[in-house]
Design goal:
The chain is an alpha+beta fold and 150 residues long. It has helices at 22-39, 45-58, 121-129; strands spanning 2-3, 7-15, 67-76, 81-87, 93-96, 99-102, 135-136, 144-149. The longest helix is centred in the first third of the chain and has 18 residues, at 22-39.
Length: 150
């Protein structure tokens, strides 16, 4: 987490257990995405998405078999507007009293609206853990971007 004068920036990266360099990819992605968050203006979400896509393509030579999920936020402390970029199952929420309002929906099979009904709890748990989007060097997948007031 980085606090600037009127903004808080945060990056959360979670490496999958499979792949030989998952922890190294997580550190790398946290560093490069935090550096880019520091450089862009608050209104440049399309610039951030373009940068993330380009950086993901560069991973091919070093992290071909590794997978991470990530979430990045830029919170304007004056307006309480938050920009959120995420891919995978890393989540950010805002707590109001006892309740947490999640600002993102995980990219998991359980969250897909057009699936057939679940047969049992085991099937639900399996779908919940199966990612439909993540960061890996083999396939460039779209990052989700949300902008809202907290």
């Amino acid at each position: 987490m980085i606090q600037l004068e009127h903004t808080i920036l945060a990056v959360l990266v979670d490496a999958a257990e499979k792949g030989p360099n998952g922890a190294e990819l997580a550190r790398h992605w946290a560093n490069v995405s935090a550096q880019e968050l520091l450089q862009i203006s608050n209104s440049a979400s399309s610039e951030m998405i373009r940068y993330l896509k380009e950086e993901q393509q560069r991973l091919r030579h070093t992290f071909l078999h590794d997978i991470v999920s990530y979430c990045m936020i830029a919170l304007d402390l004056e307006t309480l507007e938050v920009q959120l970029w995420h891919c995978g199952d890393c989540l950010v929420g805002v707590q109001h009293g006892e309740e947490i309002r999640w600002l993102a929906t995980p990219h998991s099979l359980a969250m897909q609206p057009d699936l057939s009904p679940l047969g049992n709890n085991d099937e639900y748990l399996a779908r919940q853990q199966r990612l439909t989007r993540c960061l890996n060097a083999r396939r460039v997948r779209a990052v989700s971007m949300n902008k809202r007031n907290t």
